[in-house]
Design goal:
Length: about 500
């Protein structure tokens, strides 16, 4: 190492840096004073910028130090703001229409029931790891979704939470998994059953997973050569979904005065300590990024989207189910169905188009009209009190470009500014639900993640930035590492 990192001392009071409201984005500039030798990216999946920058910064001294001496602000996630494809958007600088997936699961060949799970093998464009490896740079990838199954790189790769188990070949090189078992022990790629009512056990499992991941990160930092090292921590996402109602008095299911009331802010303080230990291992030639792929907010409820489509005459069943039933187990009459939907933190609505779906009935000439009709009706949906929700229905042709745009859902629906999720199950008494079909869940995703870049290079930018996007990730990292940005990347350089 060239020497320990030297950051200016940070006070616990006062502002957090100059207020620079310009975007500071570009592709043509390449000032060498703004570049460095190495970059480390510490991803905190789902971390909300408001909490980190406004509510807790004084309690997070290491993040505060980076903010005070660096560039920071919100960063717009992908559409949809979901872990996959969000991180892939960051490390490829491609929108989901270029990547070919729009969530964890995706349709195959316009079938009704044939699904695929997104993974690294499905990314057919260059990633950061591909470009840097070809250019002789050493890369390290730890838990960055999607990074399973791992692929050969000029360095190492450890699979993300999509890894089935650590008995599978989840590392490159394969020998690394045996080293992890020897040096780290029982490494956790994710939290088992994070949607559970046993909150004491869940909190323990989140802490165990987090501790092993950061211990592995420090081990790899000390034992491997790297020019770019990127890690993503999933514990932030899991603790939001599991414990938000104990912390936020505005949550409809708020439970005060429990042992879990402060577990989320305490977890962030713990993460800040882990970040501090990483900073101690870095030299003055290494830039540091701390960021998230999307934000989070409380969950107010769920819209039973397929029950709504049945009520409005778009989805037809041959036989109504006896009680709440999963969509795939319901007998749908496709000869009379014009639309159906998947659920999640947003809703994906699919149209049953002639010549595209196996039993499509919508003429191509009627496609745009039906998109518009559904959009107007969805944006008029009311909550349980009769208030019209702040809902957005996005057409894929308006937000995507690339060869897979035609495979996207026909509408992406964000209910009530994303405070409401969507349930795809059929057979509810009404269109509003307040329990999820997948187990206890207190939070939903938000549009913006958080982004901090500390670059020790002379003349590097500081202060707040607005207008940053996940698409800007790969160009920015290539720029920092003095690599050319390919013309087909969609983002700009942050700086």
């Amino acid at each position: 190492m060239a020497g320990r990192r030297r950051l200016h001392p940070v006070s616990r009071s006062g502002g957090i840096g100059e207020d620079e409201t310009d975007t500071g984005l570009g592709r043509d500039r390449f000032p060498m004073g703004d570049t460095c030798v190495k970059v480390i990216v510490l991803g905190l999946d789902c971390a909300p910028p408001d909490w980190v920058f406004n509510k807790w910064l004084d309690q997070l001294p290491n993040i505060r130090q980076l903010v005070s001496n660096g560039l920071w602000g919100p960063i717009r996630s992908s559409d949809p703001p979901i872990t996959v494809p969000a991180w892939a958007t960051f490390f490829t600088s491609r929108n989901p229409g270029q990547l070919g997936f729009f969530g964890f699961r995706n349709r195959k060949n316009f079938s009704y029931n044939d699904l695929s799970i997104a993974n690294l093998r499905g990314i057919r464009v260059d990633t950061l790891w591909d470009i840097l490896s070809r250019n002789g740079k050493k890369v390290g990838v730890l838990g960055v979704p999607p990074s399973y199954p791992p692929k050969p790189v000029n360095g190492f790769m450890v699979g993300c939470f999509l890894t089935p188990d650590t008995d599978s070949p989840y590392t490159y090189p394969d020998s690394l998994r045996h080293e992890i078992a020897r040096e780290i022990g029982d490494y956790k790629v994710d939290v088992d059953e994070f949607r559970t009512k046993n909150k004491t056990a869940l909190l323990s499992r989140i802490r165990e997973m987090t501790e092993t991941r950061w211990r592995l990160l420090r081990h790899l930092m000390k034992t491997r050569e790297w020019d770019l090292l990127m890690m993503v921590e999933m514990g932030t996402d899991r603790i939001h979904h599991g414990f938000w109602k104990y912390f936020d008095p505005q949550h409809k299911k708020y439970v005060p005065n429990t042992p879990f009331e402060q577990c989320i802010p305490e977890y962030y303080k713990y993460l800040d300590d882990e970040i501090g230990q990483v900073l101690e291992l870095l030299d003055d030639d290494t830039a540091v990024i701390v960021m998230s792929d999307h934000g989070a907010k409380r969950m107010d409820g769920a819209i039973n989207i397929n029950d709504w489509l049945i009520r409005e005459g778009y989805l037809s069943l041959r036989e109504s189910p006896d009680g709440v039933t999963r969509l795939e187990k319901v007998d749908i009459d496709w000869s009379k169905t014009r639309a159906w939907a998947w659920g999640g933190y947003y809703s994906r609505i699919f149209l049953n188009v002639q010549g595209r779906e196996p039993d499509g009935i919508i003429p191509g000439s009627d496609y745009a009209r039906l998109q518009h009709e559904l959009t107007e009706k969805l944006c008029a949906v009311q909550d349980e009190h009769g208030r019209v929700m702040d809902t957005k229905a996005l057409r894929p042709q308006d937000i995507y470009s690339g060869p897979y745009t035609e495979h996207a859902p026909d509408l992406l629906v964000y209910f009530d500014d994303l405070y409401w999720r969507a349930s795809q199950d059929i057979g509810h008494d009404g269109i509003h639900s307040f329990d999820t079909e997948i187990g206890p869940d207190d939070a939903v995703h938000d549009y913006d993640g958080m982004f901090v870049l500390y670059n020790p290079a002379t003349g590097s930018p500081r202060g707040q930035r607005n207008g940053m996007k996940l698409l800007d990730g790969a160009p920015t990292l290539l720029h920092l590492l003095k690599q050319a940005v390919p013309d087909d990347m969609e983002g700009s350089i942050i700086g």
